[in-house]
Amino acid sequence: MNDTSIKISIRKLYKVFGDDPKPALQLVRDGMGKTELLEKHNHVLGLNDINVDMPTGKTTVIMGLSGSGKSTLIRHLNRLIEPTAGEVWVDDDNILDYTDTQLRQMRQHRMSMVFQKFALLPHRTVLQNAGLAPAIAGQNERKYADEARRWLDRVGLEGQGDQYPHQLSGGMQQRVGIARALTSNSDIMLMDEAFSALDPLIRTDMQDLLNELQAELQKTVVFITHDLDEALKLADHLVILKDGSVIQQGEPQHILLHPAAPYIEDFVADINRARVLRVGSVMETTPDLGNACAGEIDYNDTLESVIAKSEGDTDLSYRVLQNGKSVGTLNMRELVRALVPSRQSTDPESARRSGR
After folding, report:
1. pTM, whole model, 2 decimals?
2. Measured between alpha carbons, how far is 315 from 184 in angstroms, rounded to an integer?
3. Blockwise average pLDDT, block size 10, the chain, 356 residues
4. Are 59 and 214 in contact (CB under 8 A)?
5. Which residues make Cβ contacts (< 8 Å) with residue 71, sequence separation at least 6?
6. Residue 152 in contact with residue 179, Cβ under 8 Å?
7. Interior CA angle at 111 toward 109 and 116, to 5°?
């Protein structure tokens, strides 16, 4: 894999859980689904022909309902779970070819993981937990303390280094987990339902913190969630799973406007589209409006803010600016159309297959 814009590339990845997965895999390749495989052969289809490219320096969010395979997938990226078949490329290496030594090196230096349940060591201080990666590599506390303290300060835990995990709130403990991942200085951060155990307000704060850090550091982040609002807030690239298969992937705004299956339609049906959709996703690249222009709006403005600006007048049109340059126009009638969810199919059989 030589494309430097892609950090992680998953190719034809399958995972079948059971006593004899290889024959079961062939059944899957021949078209057998998850339910039939379990009922007839007592094997569980975890992942079914996954093909995903995760861009360098961006946040890829993998989402789906319980049992969709998202946590199984992320654990293949550091080989906490071994696949039944397929390839996982990180830069130019298929990590499934790695020796145990190479795998340890990758986990220590190239990939960090932030867990849902924090996974802090109770007998170590906050500073020592944040410096776990360099400590495992053989550094003493005096050597890693400044780096660990720097990241604790960066995630809002200044002065907390001497505390122990039980003395911190859940949100503060998860901040330690993020500081620990950053202290490892890895290019890749794996985050498995990292914020789902937190209260809603704290969860929002952590999402904002991650976006802020990502704008500054540009890590390759792989984030698992079952929450679409969280996915849309964090994702540069969104992958939606169902029954171990990728149903749709791509830029989140595009998926919201163009759901590829009834299952995706159901996912996005209740989203506040005005709050999530941005001008750049619905504008037209048409000639300048001239005197008909009601004003200027930014490419990244939400539709909600444009509705407020227009005071609901659907006869208005706006010039769209990106980095100070005119890139298109937005007519309020087109904006209103974008607020109506599209339906790919009303066929009862397709609805039944998608679980509607």
Report:
1. 0.85
2. 54
3. 83 96 95 93 96 96 92 94 96 93 90 82 93 88 91 91 92 90 91 86 89 93 92 94 95 92 88 90 78 87 94 91 91 91 52 39
4. yes
5. 192, 193, 224
6. yes
7. 130
